[in-house]
Design a protein that fits this description.
Order of helices and strands: HHHHHHEEEHHH
Oligomer: single chain
CATH class of the largest domain: Alpha Beta
Bound molecules: manganese (II) ion
Shape: globular
Strand order of the largest sheet: 2-1-3
Strand content: 5-15%
Number of domains: 2
Length: 226
């Protein structure tokens, strides 16, 4: 009797959540194992980062939109581009979800991925060469005070630029110091590196180049300059 009651209750709850699920953002599965990016990024960091930090942003984003009666807003890029119309909770958690969803695809266990000829040309033109680009990018990432992100973006004029943002802001937001389409982003929050690198953010920034997915960055570049 008790079991039957619970079954009915479960069905009612399921029906309610199904009809109310218009704006539920969900985390896409991580495209590789937690151990896949070792030794650049250790498994424990990856697991906590994905299952706790990123998952938390997704959950809090859904709750924040619901609290504001905006659960029908399901286009995350559109939300970020109009972020001043939303609460600080949507800014922090919407940025958090977008940034991490992108970050996971920009990393890969595949060794020695290469930038497309098109992107390599643009990097050489804007920064001199690939090594100089990495130096400038790491400089921006190392000097971002506190928590935030470093970015390679394509500006409205179709030019490459390096920038950084505080907290979970990103260059899609009109509040960012420089706007553009992000094609590479690196998380410099302590939760991204502290277990393995402690206070040595520059060591994390050196090691991460071994797992950057240049094929994905190249795809995003091609799409951004169209
Ligand atoms: Mn993070």
């Amino acid at each position: 009797m008790k079991i039957k009651f619970l079954t009915v209750l479960t069905l009612i709850v399921l029906a309610m959540t199904t009809t109310n699920s218009t704006a539920q953002f969900v985390q896409a599965p991580l495209p590789y194992d937690f151990t896949a990016l070792e030794p650049s990024i250790d498994a424990q960091t990856m697991e906590l980062h994905f299952t706790k930090h990123h998952a938390g942003y997704v959950n809090n984003l859904n709750n924040a939109l619901k609290a504001e009666g905006k659960e029908s807003h399901t286009d995350l890029e559109a939300i970020l581009k109009d972020i001043t119309s939303y609460s600080v909770a949507v800014r922090n958690n919407g940025g958090g979800h977008y940034n991490h969803q992108l970050f996971w695809t920009l990393l890969t266990p595949k060794k020695n991925t290469q930038a497309s000829a098109e992107l390599a040309d643009a990097i050489n033109k804007h920064f001199g060469n690939m090594e100089e680009f990495k130096t400038q990018f790491n400089q921006a990432a190392a000097t971002r005070f506190g928590s935030g992100w470093a970015w390679l973006i394509v500006t409205e004029e179709g030019k490459l630029a390096i920038t950084s943002t505080p907290n979970q802001d990103n260059p899609l937001m009109p509040v960012a110091p420089m706007q553009g389409e992000p094609i590479l982003g690196v998380d410099v929050w302590e939760h991204a590196y502290y277990l393995k690198y402690q206070n040595r953010r520059p060591d994390y920034l050196q090691a991460i180049w071994d797992v950057i997915n240049w094929e994905e960055v190249s795809k995003l570049y091609a799409a951004a300059i169209k």
